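S.,

Sequence below, as promised.
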Amino acid sequence: MQIDIIETTGLGDRSYLVSAGGAGVVIDPQRDIDRVLALAEKRAVHIALVLETHLHNDYLTGGLELAATVGADYAVPAGDTVAYERVPAADGDLLEAGPMRLRVLHTPGHTHHHVSYVLADADGDVRAVFTGGSMLYGSTGRTDLVGPEHTDELTHAQYHSVRRLAQELPPGTPVFPTHGFGSFCSATPTSGDSSTVGDQVSVNPALTQDEQAFVDQLIAGLTAIPAWYSHMGPGNAAGPAPVDLSTPRLVDPEELAGRLAAGEWVIDLRSRTAFAAGHLPGALNFELAIANFVTYVGWLVPWGAPLTLIGESEEQVADARRELVRIGIDRLAGAAVGSPEQLTAGLELNSHPVSDFAGLAVAMATDPSLVVIDARRADERSGGGVRGSLHIPIHELADRIDEVPAGDPWVYCGSGYRASIAASLLARTGRRPVLVNGGYGDPDSGAAAAGLHDDSATR
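The prediction came back faster than expected:
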């Protein structure tokens, strides 16, 4: 019996292919199912079962299309109302594929109807448990994604679900969660790349704290919910359309210039330093090479707004398209391929300076009135910030940009990624920002090393 992990680093999630005796079982597949099909072909298995632990809130599933493509049974938690035929997975059910047996455990918390799947062999020996958004590595799935009115109830349920897993499964059972590798579906940061039920007994908050302490701590630590999440649950209940990974229509420089002039969302996929050195006026920088790309495009771009990509190659555009379809951004307005110099259509390129925290310290000493923007989330800001900085989280900046004082602000975040997005949004208003390219908390090059850290910075 072999368990293959299919990583989706851009969303911080994992899917799984379990193979034995020529049969395959897939758990929580992402929408780009070609990765799963290629792996099944490599393992020489026929996919007989496709399983969902829950209706996902952070991505559109590929489960429905995958099951239809290979003729597999498609199991979805029995309590969820969906618009398609499925096998309802209810507590205690036993699903079979070749020599594999999968027992369904109702483990509510992340959602009301969430289930986990306990994998056993033909002899009944437990081999693994697939926990979705229930038991994660040193954490649990967040409990506020189906509405704030359900958060308290679901947090209590999450506590009992994780404890049920620990009580009913052998300590040596390997745990395979869907979330917890950077996903915003995790209630708190996770730790480690693998674990067992026994390991979790000593590190998981649901197993080391009493119930009310767990509930209070989890709810107090919940962070902002990415904007696109509100569309994923309904999309998964309705059944996502078959995925389309075809190349978007290519846009010539003149049409691209018109879209920029109209203020449409035109995203430059290059690195933040390349973008700062020269970019088309009005373009926005969402660096594709970093795992955060799809998170912040989905969070910042208004749902359904026309979106045009600028890539250095068709391959780069194709990679971005793959990331975007995972959260249902299917209808791209087009793409332009080439360097900014090749796409200018007579426009003069814009640029803005790049510095670091040491450079910011010098600039602040020279000009005490310097405007500094902190683009991090509120939970990050709670640990302090650059003294005197104005806190506007990146996902709020487009609506609060009038709060930024006149002038050319310096912008920072936890790595430079969000700061570059913020800088491009500010540049679109006519300012010439300075990108602080570095991590606020980096011990050697961050704000503390530059003497800028202020524990009381909460503005």
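The chain has 15 helices and 22 strands.

Coffee later?
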